[in-house]
Known about the structure:
The protein is of the alpha+beta class. Helix content is 27%, strand content 16%. The strands form five sheets. Strands 1, 2, 3, 4, 13, 14, 15, 16 and 17 form a nine-stranded mixed β-sheet that branches. Strands 5-10 form a two-stranded antiparallel sheet. The radius of gyration is 21 Å and the shape is globular.
Amino acid sequence: MLITEKSNTTSYKLRISLMGLGLALIAACSPAVDNASTVTTAAAPQAPAAALEMASPESVGMDSARLDRITQAMQGYVDEGLLAGVITMAARDNKIVHFESVGYRDLEAQAAMSNDALFRIYSMSKPITGVALMILYEEGKFRLADPVEKYLPELKDLQVFAGTDDNGNIITEPQNHKMTIRELMSHTGGLSYGIFAQSPVDTQYVEAGLLDTGDTLEEFTAKLGQIPLKHQPGSTWEYSVSVDVQGYLVEKLAGQSFGSFLEERIFNPLRMTDTDFHVPEEKVSRFAQVYGYDDAGKLEAGEGFADANFLVDPVFESGGGGLVSTAMDYMRFSQMVLNGGELDGVRILAPLTVDLMHRDQTPKTMAGSVLGARGTGFGLDFAVIDDPVEAESYSTGEFYWGGAAGTWFWIDPVENLVFVGMIQQFGNKLPNVRAASKRLLYQAILDPYGI
């Protein structure tokens, strides 16, 4: 049974709870890690030129029995009633060494999870949007230091929130410098999301219906241009709608719709045949049901966002959270990134461009930290581990992100590996699949490159 709209009061309470606990959803975009850590500066071997293919774990220095602990752990979450179904996938040295499904795609229908299931990847759309924009960067269409308003006049001369007067009216001040594309791509441009924090600016986002699915990217940007920035550009890291702005920037620079650009320049070349802004009718049988938890802690089917409907082709092509994909499609995208912009003989970006994307791009003078986490910076649409000891991770330079409905991935250039995890789950009872999968993947590596 596939539910596409809010079905009951409990689902509504779940959604409101998620919005009120913004850090919980932001954390959903950040693969949690276990306590083990190894500091390293060693470089991984050159990625092989061979096509992405299945291989034994032993052929890339990993142990099959230890790797199977990932499957056992995920099955345990299903058996405990904490998750409906899970897909986990890992590749090392351009070889897929783990690809397993457990549980159910749809509990009510007793439809088993399968490796080709489709998932709402929400914010895992963001790195794809970043790659799209960097394709245009390579073509000389912009500089990272360029003001965003140079290309998007809808955002010209934005004011900045500076407090409220005695009557509660917003006080603004001019920008101390124009928001740059680098700041836009690193969530330091002064924008917000509207649903992950409370402030007079966030209230205006909500009142403006900023993420209405009926708006075009141009209409969305025009609305945004009527609301002051929440922070001075470059002063603070705050998770934001900036990647949706990037989608519109792609449209303006490329002279075509964002969706068609993704299809022509990324999805078709990489053979990401199941990645799109909606699920077509012929693929609905593969679309995983999304779940929350009822008041008793039991799984309950229902979308996490009231207006979510991935069965129709949307007007709003959200680069920040609109895509549907599969584990294999996202593995192909991630492996291309790890390979320095190339997969199966098809080049999307140059190695140095990819390298720019997973360098810390946040201003040195920025207040606070990324995600409230230690040892973590932010590149161009990826979070980056700068210090694995502080971040409780394994490799310097690991980069990652995740989605609101529980999907997660990371890329480790030291150990030359990619991990992709797919679930469809909202709620505070969500088990820490990210930390578990990370610990269990790394304990299966018997030939580490970083030590």
